[in-house]
Amino acid sequence: MKKYNIDENTEELKYKRGRCLFALSIVLGFVGIVLLIVGIFVQNTKYGTPLSVVGAIVSMTLAFFLMYKSYSDMMAYESLKMEREYDKHELYKLKSVCKYEVKSKLLGAGFSEENEYLKKKKFSYLKDSITYYFRMVDTAKVFGSVERYIKEFELMDREG
After folding, report:
1. Contact between residue 91 and residue 109 where contact means Cβ atoms under 8 Å apart
2. Looking at CB atoms within 10 Å, which of 9, 114, 117, 135 has the fewest?
3. How far apart are CA 145 and CA 114, in angstroms?
4. Same domain as 84, residue 109
């Protein structure tokens, strides 16, 4: 079962197009610089300098336009690549602070919901099992709420 519900071929073509446009914009930028340098060497001719300056301006403008057009494709590609890389690693550090995204990542990592907590039980050689509990809380005052939630957790009926 695929984890990502996107059409891989369409997305890959879009990303390839973005990379090609970005590479073309870099080439056009270098062409513009070369045309400016050529304009310095042909400044004694009648049309050499104006043509090289106009060519440099046109190629630099096209380069910036192509960079602008490929920016969204390149950023989407980097974002998807980073997301896939993070999903490959074991869950030990959360990169996001969005409550719903954290919850979906924890549920995807094998946690289950129980009494407003996300719970995961793992086998341990030293003990029978270790159970991890997570709870996400929206609060402005940390000190009072932490103590209150610890007391609630200690009074909670837990299975296993």
Report:
1. yes
2. 9
3. 20
4. no
